[in-house]
Write a structure and sequence with these properties.
The complex is a heterodimer of chains A (about 140) and B (about 400). With about 140 residues, chain A is of the alpha+beta class. Chain A contains three helices and eight strands. Chain A folds into two domains: about 1-75, Alpha-Beta Plaits, CATH 3.30.70; about 75-135, Alpha-Beta Plaits (2-Layer Sandwich). Chain A has helices at about 20-25, 55-65, 120-125; strands spanning about 1-10, 30-40, 45-50, 70-75, 75-80, 100-105, 110, 130-135. Chain A has a four-stranded antiparallel β-sheet with strand order 2-3-1-4. A two-stranded antiparallel sheet of chain A has the order 5-8. A two-stranded antiparallel ribbon of chain A has the order 6-7. In chain A, helix 1 packs antiparallel against helix 2 (about 55-65). The longest helix of chain A is centred in the middle third of the chain and has 13 residues, at about 55-65. The model of chain A is unreliable at about 140 (pLDDT under 50). In chain B, the strands form six sheets. In chain B, strands 3, 4, 7, 10, 16, 17, 18, 19 and 20 form a nine-stranded antiparallel β-sheet that branches. In chain B, strands 23-22-11-14-25-24 form a six-stranded mixed β-sheet. In chain B, strands 6-5-8-9 form a four-stranded antiparallel β-sheet. Chain B folds into two domains: about 10-55 and about 170-380, no CATH class; about 65-165, no CATH class. Chain B has six helices and 26 strands. With about 400 residues, chain B is α+β, with helices and mostly antiparallel strands. The chains are: A alpha+beta (about 140), B alpha+beta (about 400). The interface of A and B includes residues 87, 92, 93, 104 and 125 of A.
Chain lengths: ~140, ~400
């Protein structure tokens, strides 16, 4: 199963077509609508988490593009909530890039954002749940 | 101990604490003091050595009396935030265990399970002052007619709550490596295939029982730092096993002693009782525990001077051996090696194709938090907030 967050920008003329609904009906994709607005110029914006097989995903996105919808991917960033991190080091067992490591001799867990590939493995590997995914742009704001 | 050069009693040390004249150092600081001055001089200088450890300790939980309802109930089943608590006790008493999962938790049905909320989280929510949903069901009796009760409770409203952990503070623990071909998710964390990483879990030279390896000063009545409050050692913990092979300094070379501890939950804080989710395994509770070790004589000074270079543990294969119930040692490493961040798999026990391989180490037990506990306990003693508890009886030793 492939899942990705995308932002859709609908031109005025595409607004009345059931394009998103067709992603489910014709492409076997599921989606969660995270945000949706229509601006005064009657252009639409929608943030979706779209899931399905990679082939269906690709075909669905192509379908949207064919109907004039601009598709943008949402960037995400892993952040560490420092008040929650206990410096246990469990995350360093799964981090593939070395973004999370233990500094010696202090034995503090350090997080180097620049090395992070946003693979998200640390989120569920962290016992107290200190690692979170945060969107990098303002697309969730009203 | 008849011919010791230094001799102090608990009463003498406590009198020094009350007079504000006590000398307290952490177990990390003691390493250097003993190396520099030797045990006799160190015993003359230092009165108390503080230790600390902070890690998931599964055998933990809390007894709670949630108060009588109107009309009354003899609860036979109890849930706290939908996590079952054991209710086979008196009418409104129950025990919430750290590893109990929520009723609707998908567990390992989609592997590896996430285990987002369980008994450990309920305990952390309670000590954080959060409101917890309590539900109880009963068959009804003439004296306690209710069949069901539901209410929101906070730790403040609950008449009585005691943290009671049957096994904490393991003296030494395995170094877990996966020599199998598939990734595994264990209580020792994620273990990559083909000896991809080595996970270990001990505060080493700061760990309580490593500083009193033969339990000369620890037993029923030893006053301790527990979950941010003051607690007590009440018994040897489950699986307490003093009869394992030890180093010349008396330190066990594999898991040995354990502590059963108890304390008033109302004194405790969410920084030191942290609900944790162990991927693919379950929920647990990370417990902050610190034991003060009285330096009664030079032997205690020598014990507390132990360093990570002198503490060893065994490499155990969690891929095949451990699940089969075998825990044979494949090799031995020191905590100093483990804390360097990398070990070399050496020795005849290591499967041939992995011999000589360098692997990354993962600590699991937080040294940052362990140090903070030892430091806090040191300050409590210095500021006369904490006096030593003399044990009525010490833990079984060799």
């Amino acid at each position: 199963m492939y899942s990705k967050m995308i932002i859709l920008h609908f031109p005025r003329q595409a607004l009345e077509k059931p394009l998103v609904c067709n992603l489910a009906r014709d492409f076997d994709l599921t989606f969660t609508i995270l945000n949706a607005t229509i601006n005064p110029k009657k252009e639409g914006m929608m943030v979706l988490e779209l899931s399905g097989t990679p082939q269906h995903f690709k075909a669905g996105v192509q379908y949207l593009k064919d109907h004039g919808v601009e598709v943008e991917s949402v960037g995400g960033q892993i952040r560490r909530v420092t008040e929650i991190c206990t410096h246990c080091g469990s995350c360093t067992a799964v981090c593939p890039t070395g973004a999370l490591s233990v500094k010696t001799p202090e034995m503090e867990v350090v997080f180097d954002q620049d090395k992070c590939s946003v693979c998200k493995l640390c989120i569920t590997a962290c016992p107290p749940r200190a690692m979170v995914l945060r969107p990098t742009n303002g697309s969730f704001k009203g | 101990m008849g011919d010791t050069k230094v001799k102090k009693t608990y009463a003498e040390i406590n009198a020094k604490i009350k007079a504000g004249e006590v000398v307290v150092v952490t177990a990390e600081e003691m390493v250097e003091i003993v190396q520099k001055h030797g045990p006799v001089e160190a015993a003359r200088k230092v009165d108390v050595v503080t230790t600390g450890t902070f890690a998931p300790m599964c055998s933990s939980g809390a007894f709670i009396n949630f108060g009588h309802t109107r009309p009354g109930i003899k609860a036979s089943r109890v849930w706290l935030n939908n996590v079952p608590a054991y209710a086979g006790l008196a009418a409104v008493d129950c025990y919430i265990g750290a590893t109990e999962c929520g009723e609707d938790d998908p567990l390992n049905r989609v592997f590896p399970g996430e285990f987002n909320y369980g008994g450990g989280h309920v305990i952390q929510d309670l000590v954080a002052g959060k409101s917890v949903h309590l539900k109880a069901t009963a068959y009804g009796t003439q004296c306690y007619p209710s069949n069901q009760a539901e209410k929101m409770v906070t730790l403040q409203d609950i008449p009585w709550a005691v943290l009671c952990n049957p096994r904490n503070g393991y003296q030494n623990y395995n170094c877990a490596v996966n020599f199998g071909k598939k990734m595994i998710y264990t209580y020792m964390g994620a273990l990559k295939p083909n000896a991809g990483n080595a996970n270990y879990c001990s505060a080493g030279q700061l760990s309580p029982l490593m500083n009193d390896p033969l339990y000369r000063t620890i037993g029923l009545g030893t006053r301790i730092f527990l979950g941010g409050g003051i607690g007590y050692v009440v018994w040897q913990g489950s699986q307490h096993n003093p009869s394992v092979e030890r180093t010349e300094g008396g330190v066990p070379m594999r898991p040995a002693g354990t502590l059963m501890v108890l304390g008033d939950l109302k004194q405790m804080t969410p920084r030191w009782l942290v609900g944790v989710s162990i991927q693919g395994y379950g929920t647990s509770l990370s417990v902050g525990l610190g034991v003060p070790v009285p330096i009664l004589d030079e032997q205690m000074a020598a014990y507390t001077g132990v360093s990570d270079q002198e503490i060893v543990t065994q490499i155990i294969d969690y891929g095949e051996d451990y699940p089969k119930g075998k825990a044979r040692s494949l090799g031995q490493v020191t905590y100093a090696e483990l804390r360097s961040g990398e070990i070399t798999l050496a020795g005849s026990g290591i499967p041939e194709k992995f011999r000589g391989q360098k692997i990354h180490t993962v600590p699991l037990s937080s040294m940052v938090r362990a140090r903070e506990i030892a430091e806090t306990l040191k300050q409590w003693i210095r500021h006369k907030r904490f006096v030593l508890g003399e044990p009525q009886t010490t833990l079984p030793s060799v």
